[in-house]
Amino acid sequence: MDNVAKLEGHLTARLGAMLGPRLAVQPTLGFTSSKPDELIRAVRLFFDTARRRGISDTSLGSANVIYLGLLLEALSQQRLDEEFIATLVSVEEPEAHLHVTLQRHLFRYLLRTGPSLILTTHSPHIAAVAPVPLLHRAARDGEPCRSIR
């Protein structure tokens, strides 16, 4: 139970850092079974502290951010346990289903704390806060990929 509470705390802190105070996400982990051999399969992620709203009851944007938060938490734990060689995270259009403010906050978080990152976006809001040397235009019709300077 201590590990579950610890994971819950880490995930809450990471999501708070990823999205800031505007999106009050307080995920909780709960069990749907009390049988010891079924507990690990019975862990459920809830979107609220009352444990009434499951992930399926939240918006797609929020669910995607929670998934990304869980992924980054797993990578962080692997680093602590020295169980990895290298990490490259690729995120396609993280702006999908997220408010502009959350797009910017999430992108800044990923730049500041994330592992090596490849991010594709159509969002002018993300591009507006990206450091220019990090921007690259994808190749089209055999043209080479070029940095934007």
How would you concisely characterize the structure shown here?
The chain has 149 residues and is an alpha+beta fold. It has 4 helices and 6 strands.
SSE succession: HEEHEHEHEE
Helix content range of the residues, please? 25-40%
Strand order of the largest sheet: 1-2
- Residue ranges: pLDDT <50 for 5 or more in a row? none
Terminal CA distance: 51 Å
**How large is the radius of gyration?**
18 Å
Largest sheet: 2 strands, antiparallel
- The CATH architecture category equals 3-Layer(aba) Sandwich
Average of per-residue pLDDT values:
79
Strand content: 5-15%
Kindly report the name of the CATH homologous superfamily.
P-loop containing nucleotide triphosphate hydrolases
Structural class: alpha+beta
Q: How many domains, as an integer?
A: 1
Number of helices: 4
The top-level CATH class is Alpha Beta
The tally of beta strands, per DSSP, is: 6
Query: CATH fold name, please?
Result: Rossmann fold
What sort of overall outline do the alpha carbons produce when their principal axes are compared?
A: globular
